[in-house]
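Hello,

Our lab assistant flagged a job as stuck in the queue for most of the afternoon. It eventually completed. Since we weren't sure the result was trustworthy after the delay, we are filing this so someone can double-check. Below is the sequence as submitted and the structure that was eventually returned. Let us know if re-running is recommended.
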Amino acid sequence: MSQHIAIVEDEAAIAENYRDHLRRQGFRVSLYGDRNSAATAFRDRLPDLVIVDIGLGEEMEGGFDLCRELRARSATLPIVFLTARDSELDEISGLRLGADEYLTKGISNAQLLARIHALLRRVRALTAPEREEQLLQQGELEMNLERMTTCWRGKPVDLTVTEFWMVNALALHPGHVKSRQQLMDSADVVLDDNTITSHIKRIRRKFLQHDESFAAIETAYGVGYRWKG
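-- returned structure --
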């Protein structure tokens, strides 16, 4: 059975464009124009992935509210914000609420599809048998590349797909400086320098929640970042 993607978007023409593209890729797609209709539909069964705008009709932050509700129900459901709002504050708010990705509507269909496939691969990996050769260990850090999970001092660190591959790129070669471009290549994304910086800040914050002395990610000013081995 094809995987089910729900799009929660109040602009019908935009929603239909994404729906048609994803259907051509073999996905089953449902459209919802507001938070209430989406929430009602999701009560019976969650889709495999949700794409949601922030502003939904008269609810300027209806997408944030829906994300909060969905994340409370499922820790693994992939949630993608796709919005015209490109401020760093909105992006940080969306990711803090538990979204896996925050994308702006200028993204190409090909890039959107790549992010969707990456998120769905992560969900499949969570149910796959562990393979020892897919483990990366650096000091207190342990990353399972098959399940795409991260632990620090034995405690799980909840990273998004983008954050996971950035940490993996840094930890794979401790002491080596990775440029912003190399981090983008590792995460298969195209971001500006400020967004890369925001991702690194969020990654550090997530590790600091488990270890107040965390300092494994060092900034090489003007160059990039390194993992302190």
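-- support follow-up --
The delay was a queue issue, not a problem with the job. The result is valid. Residues 109-126 form the longest helix (18 residues). The chain is about 45% helix and 20% strand.
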